[in-house]
Amino acid sequence: MKLDAKIPSGPLELKWDKHRSDLKLIAPANKRKCDVIIVGTGLAGASAAASLGELGYNVKVFCFQDSPRRAHSVAAQGGINAAKNYQNDGDSIYRLFYDTIKGGDFRSREANVFRLAQLSLNIIDQCVAQGVPFARDYGGLLDNRSFGGAQVSRTFYARGQTGQQLLLGAYQSMMRQVAHGRVKLYPRTDMLDLVLINGHAKGIIVRDLITGEISSVAGDAVILATGGYSNVFFLSTNAKGCNVSAIYRAYKKGALFANPCFTQIHPTCIPVSGDYQSKLTLMSESLRNDGRIWVPKKPGDTRHPNDIPEDERDYFLERKYPSYGNLAPRDIASRAAKEVCDEERGVGPGGRGVYLDFSEAIKRLGKRKISERYGNLFEMYERITGENGYEQPMRIYPAPHYTMGGLWVDYNLMSNIPGLFVLGEANFSDHGANRLGASALMQGLADGYFIIPYTIGHYFATAKEPKSSVNNPEFKKAEKDVVNMIKKLLSVKGKRSAVSFHKELGRVMWDNVGMTRSRQSLETALKRVPEIRDEFWQNVIVSGVNETLNQDLENTIRIADFLEFAELLALDALEREESCGGHFRVEYQENGEAKRNDEQFAYVAAWEYQGIGNKPILHKEPLYYEYVQMATRSYKSMTDLL
Amino acid sequence: MNLTLKVWRQKDASSQGYLETIEAKDINQYMSFLEMLDVVNEHLIVEGKEPISFESDCREGICGACSCAINGKPHGGHKGTTTCQLHMRYFKDGDTIVIEPWRSRAFPVIKDLIVDRSAFDRIIQAGGYISVNTGGAHDANSIPVSKEIAETAMDAAACIGCGACVASCKNGSAMLFVAAKVSHLNLLPQGKPEKDYRVKNMVTQMDEEGFGNCTNIGSCAEVCPKEVDLKFIAKMNRDYGLAILKGESRHKPDTISIQAELSELPID
Amino acid sequence: MSVIKNLYYSSVGKKYIMAISGLCLLTFVIGHSLGNLQVFMGKETINRYAHFLQSNKEILWLVRIFLFTMLVLHLWTSIRLWFENRAARPIGYFGNPTPMSSTFASRNMMFMGIVLGCFLVYHILHYTVQVSDINLIGKDFSGAEFQIKGQRDVYKMMINGFSHPLVSLFYILGVGGLCFHISHGAHSLFQSVGINSQYYHRILEKAATILAIILFIGYVSIPVSVLTGILK
Questions:
Q1: Could you tell me if A408 and A604 are in contact, meaning their C-beta atoms sit under 8 angstroms apart?
Q2: Do B110 and B123 fall within a single domain?
Q3: What is the CATH number of the domain that holds B234?
C-alpha cells in the first residue's frame, strides 16, 4: 500500500488556499441527499456537526454520554493558541507553525501544521462570535497569556475552563442545527463497528446503551471524532468513558493506525493514593512557575515534609537542569520524577509522588499573591487530598494525558478507507511526537469547523458511490459479529471483573510502555499483554445481560479493545528505535537527553491490521521538511520551554 | 472504615424502585465517593450480583455527569463540589449513607441512580445559542466587551448542566440552569440581537418539559457545584418581562438554516 | 394579548403575577397599618380618618375591588403553582430533608398564606361586614352604640373588638402569619421581577425581615394595648 498524504503543491503559505480552490464543490440541493455519520461530540465532533448541518448535510451524531456537552474536551483547562499577535509581541502564523512543528520534535507534516496555524485565527473569531466568554482586559479586548513557557502570549483563555467554554460554543451551535432538523442526535449510543461497502466507509453498528439494542446506521461518509486512548494506561487524566474502541474497530476494518507510541505524559497531576484510584487529576502546569520540586535525599524517609531540614532535601530538577530548574520541559520533568521515585525516594502513599513546595514563594511574595495566582488550584488540591498546599508541600506525579497517535489521515483528514474521516485527537495529524500546551483545542476546532466542511464535499463530489442501505449483507454481517462478541463476553462467566484486568493492563503499560521505554521493557509488555488478554477471555465475569442498561458490559467491551490495542502501542514503541517527543527509549539518549534519529525514523509509522496476535504490517510515510530545518531540541536556551 | 449504604435500586424506567441496604467494607478516607462505589461494585460483580448503576465521566468536576443525592443533598451538599470530587474523609466509620437519584418529574429515572436529563439539551436547543454560521465571523477584537460583562457572563457560563439545581429544588424547578444560559448569552453583545426570543423560547421549553416553578428559596444556588448565583434568575426574569412586554418579536427564530432554504431552490 | 397569555401560562409570568399582586397587597398592608396606628393618636384622629375613608364610597369601592382582584390573582396563581410544583417533584428524598438554604418563611409560604386567608375572612366579617355573631362579645358594631353624631365610632369598635382575648389571639396569629409571609415575599418579589443583584440581595432580604417585624409590632400593638388597658 502506498500512502499518499495528498499534500498540495505550491508554496507552504498558499497550499491550503490553493487546495480549497481545487476541491470540488457539491450543489446545495445535493447536500441534503448526503448522510454524514459523526461519532463523538467533543470539540472536533460537535464543531463538524454544526458546520456540516449549516451547509445542509443530513448529519447524525452519536455519543456515549447522556449529553453531547459532556465529551471530555470539556475538561481542558489552560487555553487555546492562535497567532493573532494581539499583544504585538512578534507572533505570526509562521512562528506558531514553527513552535508546533519543533515542539512535535519534527514528526508531523509541514503542510498540516502550517494550515493549523493559519486556521487558528479563524477559530478565535468564530468562538467569540458564538459567545465564548474569553478573558478580556480593561479595554474590553481579548486577553492573552503565555503558556508552557512560549516566548509570545498567544493563548486565549476563559478562566481555567477554556475547554468547557469552547465545547459549549460548539455544542450550542450543534443544538441549533438539531433544532433546525439538520442534525439528529443519538446520545447514550456506542459505536461498535465500522461497515465498509465496496471499500468505502458506509455506516456503523451501534449499541443503544439503554436498551442494549444493536442496530445499523447507514450513511455516505463516517467521521470519527472519538478522542484519544490514554486510558490504555488505566490511570490517566482522561474521563472514565474515554476509549479506543471506535478507532480500533476502524483499524480492524483496514484503517491504518499511525504512531500509536506517541503518548504524552503530564508532569503535574495529583498522585495515586491507592489501588482503588479511578483516575488522575491534572493541575495546571503554571504551578511550576513558583513551586520548587523536591524529594528527601534519604530513601524511605517517612517524616512529615515540614520536618525534613533543608540540607536533607534534594531539589532534583534544579540540581540536574540548573538552567531550567523547575521549569524543565514536560517530558524531562516527568522522567526525572520517575527516576527519584524508582530510587525509593518518592513521597506520599505508595511512594509515587514528589513534593511541589510553595513555602519559599510564599515567603518571597506573600500568601495573598500566591493565592491570587493559584487559589483555585490550591482549593482543588485540598478538595481531593485534604491537605493544605499553603502549609505543607503539595504532592505531584506525572500521568498519561494526551495521545498524539491515532488513525492515519491524509491532508483532507480522510483515512486510507475512502469516506472515513478522522478528526481531533483521534487522528495522528498535527502534533508529531509531542503536543504543545493549548494546541489540542486548536486542532479539534480547526478540523471540525474549517477543514472537514471543505474536504467532505470533495469526497462526495468525486467518489460518487451509490447509496447504501442497512439491509446490505455487510451491515447484517457486522451486526452479527458484534452480537456474537457480546454473547461471548457474557458467556465467559469467570471470576475476575473486567476492571481488574484493565488495572492489570494499565500497570503493565505504565511500567513498561510509559514514561521511559526500553527494548527489554517493551518485550516484557508484548509478552504480558497477550497473557492478560487470554486470561480475560477465559476468566472475566460480566454482570447482567445485554438487553438493558449495563455499564459493566459497556466497560468490558472497551477493555477488550484496549487489551488488543495495547500490543500495537508497545510494538510501535519497540520498532521506533529513537527517542523523540513523548517517546523516550532509554537506549537512545545523550547525556540524559532524548536522541532523535532523523535519518532512519523521520517517518509516520502507519500500521495495518493482520488479525489478533499477528504482527501488523508497517507502512512508512516519509516526512519531508522543505521550510524548516530539523533541529535538535536543546535545553540550553529558554526557547525550548514548550 | 465500614459503611452502610442505602442505595436506590430501580431496574428500569417503568419499574418500582426501592432502597437497598449494601455494606461497604474497608473504605479508605482518601477515596472519592465514586471510587467507594467502584469498590462496592467490584465486589457485587464478582459475587454475581447486579452492580449499582451510576453516572460519571470526567471525575474532576467539569463534565456534569455525576448525579446522586447523598443523604438527600445533591452532590453531597459541600460548597462548590460535585459528587466525583467528594471524598470519603467527610464520613466516619459506621455511618449510614442514603444514595438516591435526582428527584424531579422532568428527570425520570432510567436505572438505579441514573436519570434522563435530556430535557436540558432540548432547552438549549430552544434558544441557548447565538445564531452564527461557521466562517461568517469577523475579527474577534472588533466588538469590545467590558471586562465586567465578560466576567459576569463567564460566571453564568460556568454551569456544567449537571441538574443539581433541579434536584435540590423542592419544586423541581430548572430556573437556575436556564437562567445561567440565558444570562451568559444575553449579557454579551453577540447575544443581544436574539435576546428576546431566546429567553421566551427557553422559558417556554422549560415549562413544557415539566419543571416546577421558582419560589425564590435558593437551594439551587446553594448546591450548585459551580456556584452560579441567584442573581441570574433575576436577570432572566427581567429579560423575560421585557421580552413579553414587547409582544411577539418580529423576527421569529429561523427554523430552517439559510443553506437549507437555498437547497429548496432548483439549481440547474 | 400575547402579554397576558405569557403572563398567565408561563412559569416566569406566574412569578410576575405573584410579585405584582403581592406588592399591591403589601402596599395595602402597610397603609392599613399606618391608618390603624392612628388609634394611638386619640379617638378623634382615627374616627376622622375612618370618616374620610367611608365618605368616598366610589374610591373606597374601587380600591376594594382592585385589592380583591389582586387577592384573587395572588391566591389563584399560588394554588396553580402549588399543584404544579408538587407534580414537578412527585417523589422526594428519603427522610424528607429540609431544603438547603431555605427559611421557615420560604418553606411555609402556602401554610402561612392559608392561616392568613382564614384570618382575613374572619377579620372582614368582624370589622367590615360587622357580623355580630362572631365578635364573641355579642355587640352589634353597626348599631347605634357605635355611632357618634351619625358617624361611626371606629375607636370604640376597635377597643371593643379586641377586648375578647380569643379574638385578639386570633388576630395576633393572623398578623404573625402575614408577617412571616411578608418576610419572604417582600424581598422575593424583587427577585421575581428581576430587580436584584448580588450586591443588594442581602440588603433586600434584611429589609424585608425588618419590614415584617415593624409591621408585626405595629399591628399587634393595638390588641395588646387594648388587653393591657393602655387603650381604653
A1: yes
A2: no
A3: 1.10.1060.10
CATH class of A473-597: mainly alpha
Give the closest of A32, A500, A543 to B263, CB-based.
Answer: A32
One-letter amino acid identity for A270?
Answer: I
B140 with B236, same domain: the answer is yes
Q: What cell does A407 get? A: 488513525
Strand partners, C152: C147
**How close, in Å, is residue B56 to chain A by CA atoms?**
7
**Helix H or strand E segment including A541:** strand A540-541
**Nearest by Cα to A521 from A470, A590, A573:** A573
Q: Do B45 and A450 touch (CB under 8 A)?
A: no
Q: If you compute the radius of gyration of chain C from its CA atoms, what whole number of angstroms results? A: 20
C100–B168 C-beta distance less than 8 A: yes
SS3 call for C110:
helix
E strands, C46-189, are: 147-148, 151-152
Taking only the tens place, the pLDDT of each residue in B205-216 is 999 999 999 999
Q: A88 is written with which cell numbers?
A: 504585538
Stretch B131-135: mean pLDDT:
94
How much is the ipTM here?
A: 0.94
At residue A601 the predicted structure's pLDDT band, cuts being 50, 70 and 90, is: very high
Q: Is C9 on the interface with B (CB under 8 A)?
A: yes
Class of domain A267-400: alpha beta
Active site residue A330: yes
CATH number assigned to the domain comprising residue B105: 3.10.20.30
A226: which 3 cell numbers? Answer: 472519538
Cell of residue A348, nine digits: 506520599
pLDDT digits (tens, 9 = 90+) for B65-107: 999 999 999 999 999 999 999 999 999 999 999 999 999 999 9
**Do residues B47 and B13 share a domain?**
yes
Q: Which is it for strands B3-9 and B96-101: parallel, antiparallel or unpaired?
A: parallel
DSSP at A486:
H
Q: What angle do CA A368, A372, A376 make, to 5 degrees?
A: 120
A627, A507, A477, A501: which is closest to A561 by C-alpha? A501
The grid cell for A315 is: 531539589
Distance of CA A110 to the CA centre of its chain: 20
pLDDT digits (tens, 9 = 90+) for A194-239: 999 999 999 999 999 999 999 999 999 999 999 999 999 999 999 9
B79 and B14 in a common domain: yes
> Mean pLDDT for chain B?
92
Same domain, B56 and B73: yes
Compute φ and ψ for A24, nearest 5 degrees: -75, 145
B210 in contact with chain C, both atoms CB, cutoff 8 A: yes
d(CA A131, CA C36): 55
Residues near A505 by Cβ (< 8 Å), separated by ≥ 6?
Answer: A232, A234, A529, A532, A559, A562, A563, A566
Instruction: Work out how many CB contacts closer than 8 A connect B with C.
Output: 152
Query: Is C228 an 8 Å CB contact of chain B?
Result: no
Domains of chain C: 2-90+102-228 (1.20.1300)
- What whole-number distance in Å separates Cα of residue A526 and Cα of residue A533? 11
Name the closest residue on chain B to residue C100, using Cα atoms. Answer: B219
Q: Provide the pairing of β-strand A496-497 with A540-541.
A: parallel
Contact call for C and A: 3+ CB–CB distances under 8 Å: no
In terms of domains, do B235 and B148 share one?
Answer: yes
> Residue B81 domain-assigned?
yes
Adjacency order of strands within the sheet including A617-622: A406-407, A257-258, A603-608, A617-622
Neighbours of B95 (CB within 10 A): 16
- Nearest alpha carbon to residue A405 among A517, A262, A232, A514: A262
Structure confidence at residue B265 as a pLDDT band (50, 70, 90): very low
Domain residues for the domain of B241 are 118-245
Distance separating alpha carbons of residues C218 and C30, to the nearest angstrom: 10
Total count of domains within chain B: 2
